[in-house]
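STRUCTURE:
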């Protein structure tokens, strides 16, 4: 580590790793960088949201060039192993290396997302030997949670029309667009009735063992949605011989559901185990490798109540219809970027409980263009109208639309080719990035997103490849020779 910290970008990464910076707790790191910039003699602005805007004058010969903006976010996702005693509110993150990768020595997230981008920008601000146009460096807050910083930033502070976002995690790939999206909540009132305990047995059926994943970036990987799959089981194997007491599945609209379960009142004499076993084999065949660990668990439940509340048959049929017809998965793929999703919805949460009186579905709609997001929202509105349900939408965010013509992108591809004698891949990402907010606040902003190789973001396994950071910094300094 001592040798590694001789390199200024690693040095600055270690410095900011000493400062707790979970989303919503960025004041200390914002204050520290603000004072650091002023000590360097740089003009710096700290706004009410704690965003930082730092300005550096052009190097000799670049004074007449248009400014370039470098942008990263200060906050990090704070996750740790069950055995870790780390206190994210007070403890520094200690770094370690195995020679190839830089990692946390605390069994926590590393914070390379997006600390390594910040550190590279700080090294550039410090270095007086580099050639570059006027520079503007913006560090935002709460990117990982609410996009508060990017949304709150005053566009009057930005003169640049060329922006390099430093928040990507694949060295050989350039991102040229990201999706927008919105949360959707669907509520359907249901009717309940009572059955006697002696007429039935109570069973819990649980579908588990799916891989799950990010609702945008993993939506194309065929991992299966536990809610949708369980509903098929209930429709095919349960509908005629059992009544539903409750159903639940998923924990977050931003995650593909790995598990879902239902509590059932089965008619006496019905062999539910045989019916479920048949469905499990069919679903595992469909999912292939993604369903290798999938299981349908059946556990008989004790019941103290003499009378059991269950969905009446008509309401259960409404639930089946609503869930099976609810938009989920991929709707559109890119014709320009092969293999890239441009429109999707993730049915992330489902709840049916007697005490709530109805069905609730929560999903996350994503689309590369606002029209795509609205199209999926219209599908949900239409389904709600047909079913007699209510649909509301919340926490919307805009897309960063791909620009067919981008001088900054062409310059980046040229410099990468010159440096490494190979082509850089151009893609769009099916997730939200801060470039969307900047493109909307500052019309005409030419944006790219780049970064070094990082793995396992948002987990204690997070790591960044050391050699990739070195190459990325070299590439970034060459990008800044643009005129």
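SEQUENCE:
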């Amino acid at each position: 580590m001592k040798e590694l910290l001789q390199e200024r970008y690693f040095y600055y990464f270690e410095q900011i790793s000493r400062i707790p910076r979970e989303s919503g707790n960025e004041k200390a790191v914002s204050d520290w960088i603000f004072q650091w910039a002023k000590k360097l003699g740089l003009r710096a602005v700290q706004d009410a949201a704690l965003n930082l805007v730092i300005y550096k004058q052009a190097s000799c010969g670049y004074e007449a060039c248009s400014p370039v903006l470098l942008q990263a976010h200060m906050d990090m996702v704070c996750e740790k192993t069950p055995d870790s005693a780390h206190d994210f509110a007070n403890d520094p993150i200690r770094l370690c290396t195995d020679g190839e990768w830089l990692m946390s020595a605390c069994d926590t997230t590393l914070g390379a997302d997006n600390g390594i981008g910040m550190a590279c920008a700080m090294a550039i601000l410090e270095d007086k030997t580099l050639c570059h146009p006027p520079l503007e460096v913006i560090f935002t807050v709460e990117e990982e949670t609410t996009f508060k910083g990017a949304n709150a930033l005053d566009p009057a502070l930005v003169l640049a029309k060329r922006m390099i976002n430093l928040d990507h995690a694949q060295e050989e790939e350039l991102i040229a667009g990201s999706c927008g999206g919105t949360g959707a909540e669907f509520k359907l009132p249901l009717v309940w009735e009572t059955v006697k305990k002696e007429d039935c047995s109570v069973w819990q059926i649980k579908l588990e063992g799916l891989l799950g994943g990010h609702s945008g970036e993993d939506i194309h990987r065929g991992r299966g949605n536990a809610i949708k799959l369980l509903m098929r089981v209930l429709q095919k194997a349960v509908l005629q011989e059992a009544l539903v007491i409750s159903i639940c599945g998923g924990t977050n609209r931003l995650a593909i559901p790995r598990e879902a379960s239902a509590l059932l009142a089965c008619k006496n004499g019905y062999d539910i185990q045989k019916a479920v076993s048949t469905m499990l084999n069919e679903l595992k065949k469909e999912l292939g490798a993604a369903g290798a660990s999938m299981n349908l668990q059946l556990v008989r439940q004790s019941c103290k109540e003499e009378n059991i509340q269950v969905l009446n048959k008509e309401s259960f049929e409404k639930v089946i219809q609503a869930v099976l017809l609810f938009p989920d998965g991929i709707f559109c793929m890119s014709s320009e970027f092969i293999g890239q999703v441009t429109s999707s919805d993730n049915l992330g949460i489902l709840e049916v409980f007697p005490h709530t009186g109805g069905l609730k579905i929560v999903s996350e709609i994503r689309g590369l263009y606002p029209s795509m997001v609205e199209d999926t929202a219209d599908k949900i509105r239409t389904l709600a109208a047909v079913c007699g349900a209510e649909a509301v939408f919340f926490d919307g965010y805009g897309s960063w639309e791909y620009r067919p013509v981008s001088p900054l992108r062409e310059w980046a591809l040229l410099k990468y080719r010159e440096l490494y004698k190979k082509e850089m891949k151009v893609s769009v990402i099916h997730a939200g990035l801060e470039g969307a907010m900047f493109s909307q606040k500052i019309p005409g902003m030419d944006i790219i997103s780049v970064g070094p190789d990082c793995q396992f973001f948002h987990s204690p396994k997070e790591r960044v490849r050391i050699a990739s950071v070195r190459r990325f910094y070299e590439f970034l300094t060459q990008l800044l020779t643009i005129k």
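REMARK: The chain has two domains: 4-179+400-479, 181-397.
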